[in-house]
Amino acid sequence: MTMSIFDKLLASPNMMAVFDDAAIVAAMLDFEAALAAAQAEEGVVPLTAAQAIAAACDAAAYDIPALVTAGRRAGTLAIPLVKALTVRVAEQDADAALHVHWGSTSQDVQDTAMVLVTRRALHLLDRMLDSLCGRVLGLAQQHLGTPVLARTLLQPAQVTSFGFKIVNWAAPLLRARQRLRGAAAAALQLQLGGAVGTLAVMDERGPAVARAMARRLGLQAPAGAWHTQRDEWVGLGLEVALLTGSLGKLAADLALMAQGEVGELAEPSGEGRGGSSAMPHKRNPVSSMIGLAAATRMPQQAATLLAAMGQQHERGLGNWQAELAAWPDLFVSAHGALQALDDAFAGLRVDPVRMRANIDALHGLVFAEAVSIRLAGAIGRPQAHALVERLARQAASEDRPLEDVVRAAVEGDAGLGTKVDLQQLHALFDPAAAAGPGARLAQARLDELRAAHAAFGPFPHSAQGTA
Amino acid sequence: MTMSIFDKLLASPNMMAVFDDAAIVAAMLDFEAALAAAQAEEGVVPLTAAQAIAAACDAAAYDIPALVTAGRRAGTLAIPLVKALTVRVAEQDADAALHVHWGSTSQDVQDTAMVLVTRRALHLLDRMLDSLCGRVLGLAQQHLGTPVLARTLLQPAQVTSFGFKIVNWAAPLLRARQRLRGAAAAALQLQLGGAVGTLAVMDERGPAVARAMARRLGLQAPAGAWHTQRDEWVGLGLEVALLTGSLGKLAADLALMAQGEVGELAEPSGEGRGGSSAMPHKRNPVSSMIGLAAATRMPQQAATLLAAMGQQHERGLGNWQAELAAWPDLFVSAHGALQALDDAFAGLRVDPVRMRANIDALHGLVFAEAVSIRLAGAIGRPQAHALVERLARQAASEDRPLEDVVRAAVEGDAGLGTKVDLQQLHALFDPAAAAGPGARLAQARLDELRAAHAAFGPFPHSAQGTA
Amino acid sequence: MTMSIFDKLLASPNMMAVFDDAAIVAAMLDFEAALAAAQAEEGVVPLTAAQAIAAACDAAAYDIPALVTAGRRAGTLAIPLVKALTVRVAEQDADAALHVHWGSTSQDVQDTAMVLVTRRALHLLDRMLDSLCGRVLGLAQQHLGTPVLARTLLQPAQVTSFGFKIVNWAAPLLRARQRLRGAAAAALQLQLGGAVGTLAVMDERGPAVARAMARRLGLQAPAGAWHTQRDEWVGLGLEVALLTGSLGKLAADLALMAQGEVGELAEPSGEGRGGSSAMPHKRNPVSSMIGLAAATRMPQQAATLLAAMGQQHERGLGNWQAELAAWPDLFVSAHGALQALDDAFAGLRVDPVRMRANIDALHGLVFAEAVSIRLAGAIGRPQAHALVERLARQAASEDRPLEDVVRAAVEGDAGLGTKVDLQQLHALFDPAAAAGPGARLAQARLDELRAAHAAFGPFPHSAQGTA
Amino acid sequence: MTMSIFDKLLASPNMMAVFDDAAIVAAMLDFEAALAAAQAEEGVVPLTAAQAIAAACDAAAYDIPALVTAGRRAGTLAIPLVKALTVRVAEQDADAALHVHWGSTSQDVQDTAMVLVTRRALHLLDRMLDSLCGRVLGLAQQHLGTPVLARTLLQPAQVTSFGFKIVNWAAPLLRARQRLRGAAAAALQLQLGGAVGTLAVMDERGPAVARAMARRLGLQAPAGAWHTQRDEWVGLGLEVALLTGSLGKLAADLALMAQGEVGELAEPSGEGRGGSSAMPHKRNPVSSMIGLAAATRMPQQAATLLAAMGQQHERGLGNWQAELAAWPDLFVSAHGALQALDDAFAGLRVDPVRMRANIDALHGLVFAEAVSIRLAGAIGRPQAHALVERLARQAASEDRPLEDVVRAAVEGDAGLGTKVDLQQLHALFDPAAAAGPGARLAQARLDELRAAHAAFGPFPHSAQGTA
In chain D, which residues have their Cβ closer than 8 Å to the Cβ of C179? Predict the structure, then answer.
C-alpha cells in the first residue's frame, strides 16, 4: 500500500502492513490454495493438483508491479494473478494447472482476500482497544473525585468529577470493541459463488466445497454469495466509522483541555514529540491531532462504502471496485487514531491544580444552578432562575464572587433571609462536594466497565483455519 | 416538518407526519409529563404537581411558530417550551409550576423527544419491510426456475434463475429488519442527565427517577447519560443507511431490467403513474426513481451523523444541533424508498418470454464458460479458455450461434472430436438447464428466508410505557 | 430540504420563504407564462393564447397539496401542474389551452423554476455578505494594533494583531461574494430543451424562443440544454459550500475565543439570547453554534450534488430528483449561518484586557521564537532553538517569566553575554511591539479589502426580465 | 491518498508519480532553496548561505522512511526534514546552516510543496483533457446525423442525433479545462507566513522576500497568508470534483450503451483488456468502470476538503493535516478516469446499425410525441396526448407499429381524417428526419466547441519559475 507521505504521518506502520500489496496478493493466493484443497477434499479436483497449487501459492514469487499493470488493463487483479499462478503450477505439474481457480471468479478471490486481511486488521484494532481501554479505565479510577469544570456549548457549566468524564470516554470504546466483534462474526465470510453466484460449475458439490473452504480459512460459510449484497460487509466498515467518531470526540476533549488557557491536560512530551519548527516553547498535541484528522476523514470514508452499495445485477461496475479500493482507508485511519490516543494516555499529564484554578476563576458562577435550585424551594423556580441570572450578571460585572453577591441578596431581603440557611448556601460553593454526584455515578459505572473490560477474551476470529 | 416540494415527492406522508413540528413538540411534552410523574413516584415532587404538569402537556395548546422564533434566538427549543409550559401550569397551580422540568436540561428533553418519535419511525419501517419482504419472497417462489440472464459489469454473463436473483434481493431486507430491531434495542434510550449528565439536582434519587421515567415512556434506562457519546444513537441511523443501500441496489436492478431494450420487468402502470408531460407512450419507473434518489442521498445523510459525533465536553456546539436537524432525513428517505418499492412489487410485471428472448439473442455466448469448462477436461483450462474465447469472437463476428461454431471446431479437430460428446455439448446450451444450479440454491435459501420472515413478531419496542 | 423543527432553529425565515412550496410553484408558472409569451413573440403560438396562459399563472389558484400527491404518483410535479394549468386556461379560452407547455418537458419547467428561486436566494446571500463584510472590516479597523495570542494547533504560539486576525476572517467572505457572482453568471440559465434537449417540437424557431424566454426571465440563454450536464449548476452550489466552509472557520474561532477560560470575545447577550434552561449564569454562543452546525452539514450537502451528477442519457433517474430535492439545503444552511454571524458581529464584545492577560499569563513563552532568532545570530539557529527550548521548559517548570530565565542564562554565559544586548532582549517581550508586524500587514490588506467591499455594486442578476 | 493495490488499478502511473513521497520531499526542498535564494536577493541571508542550502536540497540524499517515522512523532514532516537539511548544510558550511528555513514554519513548506506538485498534477489533467476533448469532438463530427435513441429516466424517449449526444458530453469537458485553469490561477500561491502568518521574523522585508520567492517558484504571491483560510485552495479541489462528475456521467452513458441488450457502443478490445477470469466471451467495459469508480468516490473526496475547512486560529489541529493527506486522492481519481476514458475513445466502436435497430424495435412508439403534436393542431393538446397515449398502449399490446395504429385511427375518424395528412404523418416516423433538429443544434455547437478547443494554449502555469 502506497500512501501519500502526509497520509503516512497519520497511520500506524502495523496497519499499513496489513493492507500492503504483498499482503493482499498473499491472501489471494491463500484463497486459491484453500479452494483447491477444499475441492480435493470434496473430490472435485485431484489431491495432487491441490498440492501442486498450494506449492505455487507463495506471494514472494510474483511480480506485483507487473500484476498491477496487467490488472489495470484487465480491470481486475485476479486475471493476471490466476494466469501467473497457472503458469507456475504448470511448470511443476501440467495437469494440476487445469484445476487452478476452478469454478471461481475474480470477485471470489478479491473479496475473500480482503476478508482475510481485514481479519488481521480487526485483530489490531481489538488489541489496541484493549490497551487504550485499560489505560482510560485506570485513569478514571485515579480521578473519581477530582473536581473539574463540565462545559456545555463550549462554556463553563458546572463542576463535575473528572472520573465521570473519563468513564464517559471509556464506555463507547468498550462498546465499539464489542460491536466490532459482533460485526466481524457476520461479515468475515468466504466469498465463493463462481461467475454469477450460483456455484454452477461445481454442481451439487459447490456448497460442500464452500463449507470446507470456509473451515480451512477460518471464515464463516455464507448463506449465499454476497457478490452484490454488501450490507453485512459495509456494516462492518460502519462500525469502524462509529469507533472513529468516538475517538474523535475523545481527541476533541483532550485538545480543548490542553489549550494553553485551560491547561488541565497535556499530552506526553519527549524527544521529538510534538515540537514546532518555529517555536521552541511549543508542545503540540499530536495524538489529538491524529485522532481529529481521522474523525475528519472518516464520515466520508464510510459514505463511500454506502455510495458503492448499488452494485448492479451480479457484479457491480465501478462501485464494487470503488469499495475495494476505499476499504483499507477506514482501518488505517481508525488504527492510526487508536495508536495515537493510546500513546497519549500512556503518558497523559493531568493537572488537578489547574482544574481547580479554572473552577475558582469563575467566581462561583458555575454553582449558579445549585443556588437557583436551593432558592427555588423558597421562592419558586422561575423567580429563582431570574434572580440568580441577575445576581450572576452582577457578580460578573462587578468581578465579585457569586457567593458574596448571593449572600448579600439573601441578607438584604427579609423574605429570603428567613427561608435560606447561609451555611447551607456556603456549602453549595464547594467544588469537591459539587463533584460528588458525578463521582458516585462514575464509581458504579466504572465497576461495570472494568468487569466488561476484563471479560473480553481473545479476539474470536482466529487467523487460523484448519488448513 | 416543512420540506421542499421536491423532497415531498420522494417521501411518504406517514413518515413526514412522524417528524412534523407538532409531533416533536408533543414528544417534548411527553417527556416533561413523564419526568414529573416519575419524580412524584420517587417523592421528588408532589403528586399534585405531576398531575398539573401532565394536564398542561397538550401540544395543541402551544404556538409552535412562536416557539421556533424564540428557540432560534435561544439556541434551543426547550427554553421557550419549558417557559410556556411553566406559565400554563402556573395558571392552574402556582406551586406545581415550581417543579416543571426540575433537574433536567434542554438536551434531555430534545434528545428524548427525538427518541420517542424515532420509535414511531421504526414502527413504520418495520411494517413496510414486512410487506415488501412478503411480496419479494412471494415473487421468488413463482420464478424459481425462470431462466434469466445474469449480468456482471453490466454485460451478459451467464444464465441464472430469476428466483435466485429475487432471493438475493430479499435476504438483505430481512437482515435489515433484524438489524434495525437490534439497533433499536440499544438506541431507544431515555436521555436524562441534568445540566452536565450527573443528575446532580436529584441527588441519590436521580437514577431511580430515570428508571421510573424510562419505564413510563417504554424506553431503555441508559447506563449513563449519552449527551455527547452518540455511538449507539448514530449506530441506529447507520442501520437505516444500510437498509437504504440495499434498497438502492434493488431499485438499480429493477430500473435496468425495465429498460426498453431489456424489457424483462415493468413497474405497474395505472392512472397518473409514471407518465411523461411530453411523451404519451412513456411509462417511467417512478418507484425505482424514488429508491435510487434515496440511495443517492443516504451516504451523505449518514455521513452527517458521523461528522457530528465529535461533541465537545458535556454538550456539543453546532454538531449536536446539526445531528438533531439531520436525523429525520434518514428515516424520511428510507421510508419513501420502501414505500415506493412496495408499490412496485405490488404490481410488478415480469416478462419471462422477454427474459428468454434476451438469452437467445446472445447466440449462446453466455454458455461459453460452461463450454470452456467442458473442453478444459479434454485439453486443459488455459487452452480451453483461449479456444472458447476465439470461438466466441468468431461466433459474434459471423453472427452465428456459438453452439454451431463450437460443434464445427470439435468436429474439425481430431483430438477434440474424440474427447467431447456432442450430445452433452448440446445440453450445455439449454437455458432451463442452465438455470438449474441457481434454482436449487434459491429453493433452499427461500425456505430459510420464508421461515425467518414468518418468525418476526410485532415490533418489540412498544410505543406504550406504563404511564 | 427536509426541515424538521430543529432545522428551522438553524435557518432564516427569509431563506425558507424563498424555497417554500408556493414560491416554487409560482416559479414554475412563471416559466409557463414566459414560454407562451416568448412563443407568441416568435409566432409559435397566438398572442391571445399567451395572454390567456399568463392570466392563469397565478400560484394562489392551485391546490398545492393535491399537486404533491399527484406528483408523487407521476414522478414529477410538472405533469399535474401542467394539467391543472391547462384546465384553468381552457375555462377561459379553449384554444389557448392547446398551447400550454408547448414544446417543453417536465425538466425544463422544474429546472428553470429552481433557477428562478435560486436567483432570489443568491440575492439574500449577497445582501447578507455585504452586511457581514462591512461589520467585520469595521471591527478590523478598530483593532489593528490590539495584541492577541495567535494560536497554532490549539496552542498559544505568538502574539499577533487582532486586526490581522479579523482581516483574515474578512478576506474569504469578500472572495466568496465575488465568486458567487461569477458562478451565478454561469449557472443562472434558462432550461429549455423539450423532451430530449433538442427543442425538436419548435423546429428552427426553438433557439429564438429560448433567447426570448431567457430575456423575459432575466436569465442566461444556455449554449445548449443542460438536462444532464450539471457542472455549471453544481458549480454554483459548490461556491455556497465554500462560503459556508469559511463561515465555519470564523465560527470556530469565535467559539474558541469565547470560551470561559479564554474570554476574549463574547457574542451579544440580550433578552432570550443564548440562555440555558438549567444554568442561569450561562450565555451560550448561539451564533457560532449555528455557523458550526452549517459547516458540519455542508460538506455532505455539497457531496450530494456531486453524487447526483451521473445523470443518465437525456434525463437522470433518481439522481436528478435527488439533486432537486437537496438543492435548497445548501442555501438554507449558508444563509442561516450568515445571518447568525451577522447578528454576532452586530454586537460582538471584544475584551482587549483579557487578550493582554492571556498573553501575560504565558510568562513570555510566546516570545520564545523571537528570542531564539535573536540568539541564533549569536550562536547559530539549531543551538539557539535547543537552548531556548530548554529555557522555555525551565521557565514553565519553575513558573518564572521566560525573560528572567533567558536573562540569567545570558548573564551566566560569558560567550552569550558579549553577543546579546539585554536591552534589545527586553524589547522582545513587549506584546504591543510583537503585534506590530501583523498590524502593518493588516493595515495594507484592510485598505484593499475596504476598497473591494465598496466597489461591489448591486447583485447583477436582476430578478426582473423584460417581461 | 491511501493507495491499496485495488486503488492502483484505478489510477494512472503518471499521477501516482506526481504525488509520491520523493516528489513531495523534493518539492519541500525546492521551497527551502527558493526561500534562501529569495532571502539572499533581499539581503536577509548571505548569498553564500543560499548557495550552500541550494546545494543540499537534493531529495535523493534524504532517508524518507526515517523522515516519516520522525514526522509521525513530531506531528509534521517539516521538522525532521529541516533538521536533516540543516545537518547537511552544516557539513559544508556551518554558517549557512544558521539560515536554513529562516523565518518560515512547517506549514509554509508543506503547503507550498503541495502547491508545487499540484501544478504538475494540473498539467497532467490539462494534457489529458486536451486529448480526450479532441477525440470526443472528432467522434461528434462523424455522427452528427446518426439517429440514436434518446432516453429519459432510463426509458426510450425519442430519436436524437448521436452527434448531439456526443457534443453534450464534450461541452462540460471543455468547460472543466477552462475552469481548472481559472481555479489554478487563484490557488497556485506561495504559502509564506512564518509562525503565525505575519512574516514577523523578516520584518519589513517579509513581503519582498515572498514576492521574490513566488517569482522563483513560478507561483502567485498571495495577498496574505492562507494558513487557515483555505477557500481558494479547496475551490481548486472542487473543480477537480466537478470534472470527475462530468466524467462519471460520460462513463455511465458509455456503460449503458454498451450493455449487451443495447449494443450501440463497445469499448476497444485487445489483448488483456477487459476479459473475465470465468467467462471467455466477455468484454468488460473497463474504462467506464474506472470512470464510474472515480465518480463514486469523488463526492466524498471533495467533502473531506470542505470538512477540513474549519481550521482553528492560525493553524488547524487535525483538519489541516486531514486536508493534506486527502488532497492527492482527487487528482489521482480524476486522472485515472480521464486516462481510462481517453483510452476508450481512442478505440470506441460505434454501431449505427444497432442504434437504428433499437429505434425500429420500438414500433414507432418514440415518435408518439411528434404524432401527438401533429394531432394537437387538429384536436387540441390534451385530447391529442390522451388519444396518442391510448394508441401507444394499443400498439404495444398488439405488437403493431404505432404508425399503423395511428393511421387506422385517423382513417376511422371522420373528424381527424379531414384534418390530418397521412403523408405528413408517415414522415414523422422517419428516424433520420427525427434526428434532424438535434443534428442542426449539434453542428452549431460543435463549431463553437472546436474553436474553443483549438484556442487553448499551453497550460499557463509553468513549472518553471525564474530561479
Answer: 235
CA-based nearest residue to A322, from A338, A307, A339? A307
Name, in order, each residue with C-beta under 8 angstroms of D271's C-beta and a sequence gap of 6 or more.
none
Residue B463 lies in a domain: no
- The catalytic position among B276, B390, B393, B462 is B276
Q: For residues C55 and B354, what is the distance between their CA atoms, to the nearest angstrom?
A: 49
B333: annotated active-site residue: no
**pLDDT values of chain D reduced to their tens digit, one per residue, 467 residues:** 457 899 999 999 999 999 999 999 999 999 999 999 999 999 999 999 999 999 999 999 999 999 999 999 999 999 999 999 999 999 999 999 989 999 999 999 999 999 999 999 999 999 999 999 999 999 999 999 999 999 999 999 999 999 999 999 999 999 999 999 999 999 999 999 998 899 988 888 999 999 999 999 999 999 988 999 999 999 999 999 999 999 999 999 999 999 999 999 999 987 778 776 666 667 899 999 999 999 999 999 999 999 999 999 999 999 999 999 999 999 999 999 999 999 999 999 999 999 999 999 999 988 988 888 888 878 877 788 888 888 988 898 888 999 999 999 999 888 888 888 888 889 999 999 999 999 999 999 999 999 999 999 999 876 554 44
Expressed as residue numbers, the domain containing D387 is 365-428
Distance CA D129, CA D335 (A): 9
Closest by Cβ to B281, choosing from D276, D361, D368 = D368
Q: Looking at the domain assignment, is residue A230 inside a domain?
A: yes
Give the residue among C74, A263, C206, C408 at the shortest CA–CA distance from B276: C74
The CATH number covering residue D399 comes to 1.10.40
Chain D residues whose CB is inside 8 A of the C100 CB are: 381
Looking at residue D202, the DSSP 8-state letter turns out to be: G
- Short-list C118, C108, C55, CA closest to C463: C118
Mention every residue, 6+ apart, whose C-beta is less than 8 A from residue A271: none
Residues 6+ apart with CB under 8 A from A412: none
Q: Do C279 and A151 touch (CB under 8 A)?
A: no
Distances (CA, A) of D263 to A102, A262, B261, D140, D353: 30, 67, 10, 18, 10
Q: Are residues B161 and B216 in the same domain?
A: yes
Interchain proximity D448–C179, CB inside 8 Å:
no
Cell of B163: 428466483
Same domain, D344 and D373: no
Which residue do the cell numbers 414560454 mark? C35
State the count of interchain CB pairs (< 8 A) between A and B. 285
Q: Are D293 and D9 in contact (CB under 8 A)?
A: no
Nearest CA-CA partner of D240 in D331, D306, D128: D331
- What string of DSSP letters covers D221-255? PPSS--SS--HHHHHHHHHHHHHHHHHHHHHHHHH
Q: Are residues A315 and A410 in the same domain?
A: no
What gap in Å lies between CA A15 and CA B298, rounded to an integer?
A: 29
Same domain, D260 and D398: no
Spatial distance between the Cα atoms of C116 and B416, rounded to a whole number of angstroms: 71
* One domain for residues A342 and A403: no
CA distance B104 to chain C (A): 7
Count of the separate structural domains present in chain B: 2
Evaluate whether ipTM surpasses 0.90. Answer: yes
State the Cα–Cα distance between residues C456 and D10, nearest whole angstrom: 45
DSSP tag of A189 = B
Q: What is the 3-state secondary structure (H, E, C) of C230-288?
A: CHHHHHHHHHHHHHHHHHHHHHHHHHHHCCCCCCCEECCCCCCCCCCCCCCCCCCCHHH
Pick the closest to residue A155 from C348, C9, B196, C247 (CA basis): B196
Label residue B176 left, alpha or beta by phi (over 0 means left) and psi (-120 to 50 means alpha).
alpha
Contacts with B25 from chain C: Cβ below 8 Å: 5
Tell whether B110 and B50 lie within a shared domain. Answer: yes
Q: Are strands B155-161 and B147-152 parallel, antiparallel or unpaired?
A: antiparallel
